[in-house]
Design goal:
Number of domains: 1
Number of strands: 5
Shape: globular
Order of helices and strands: EHHEHHEHHEHEH
Largest sheet: 5 strands, parallel
Strand order of the largest sheet: 3-2-1-4-5
CATH architecture: 3-Layer(aba) Sandwich
Helix content: 40-55%
Strand content: 5-15%
Number of helices: 8
CATH superfamily: 5'-nuclease
Distance between the termini: 38 Å
Low-confidence stretches: 138-165, 167-178
Radius of gyration: 16 Å
Mean pLDDT: 81
Length: 178
């Protein structure tokens, strides 16, 4: 069973139906069982940071989604350790010709260590580092986010617990009342 790494953009696209990658992320999520997914605390931190300025309801929905992901034993969430941080910082410092973030560098290290070759992402940095990007778009401009108050979680098979935990799907919330 081949594992894949789930990057920040994947989790955002699953939560936001207005995201340009939402349909592709939802369809792709059906190709993988939760026990094939690896992500990291740094990725989940980026995910939460994305929703920090979008009001208390979306902020809480994102927090519940992360809590749900952390509660499942199927999805592997790699902890942020001092050792991982130091290695990622070294990679960040060494790769001055790239615009890779610290989280990207940590993700690449995790993927290399776990021998993961593909990522649920559209981020071109993963391709630059030699990984397959499963959500890659031909037009990178199309990947710009449209975050607003109309977000609600999707209903993909992979993230049914994710959607329930956000409180939006289970409550029957619609775009109108978000």
């Amino acid at each position: 069973m081949e594992r894949v790494f789930a990057d920040t953009g994947y989790w955002i696209a699953l939560l936001n139906p207005r995201d340009d990658l939402h349909h592709k992320a939802t369809a792709t999520s059906r190709s993988y069982s939760p026990d094939q997914i690896v992500t990291s605390e740094m990725v989940l931190t980026e995910f939460l940071n994305t929703f920090s300025d979008y009001g208390p309801r979306l902020r809480q929905a994102a927090a519940r989604a992360v809590a749900s992901l952390r509660d499942t034993s199927q999805i592997v969430i790699v902890q942020q350790t001092s050792q991982l941080f130091e290695k990622a910082l070294k990679r960040y410092q060494d790769m001055t010709d790239k615009s890779w973030s610290l989280t990207d560098c940590a993700s690449f290290l995790i993927m290399e260590e776990k021998r993961i070759t593909a990522a649920l992402t559209h981020d071109r940095h993963f391709a630059q580092a030699g990984f397959q990007t499963l959500l890659a778009l031909i037009d990178h401009e199309a990947s710009k986010r449209s975050l607003d108050s109309t977000m609600r979680p999707p209903q993909p098979l992979l993230c049914s617990h994710y959607a329930r935990a956000s409180g939006l799907a289970a409550s029957g919330a619609s775009r109108k009342n978000l």
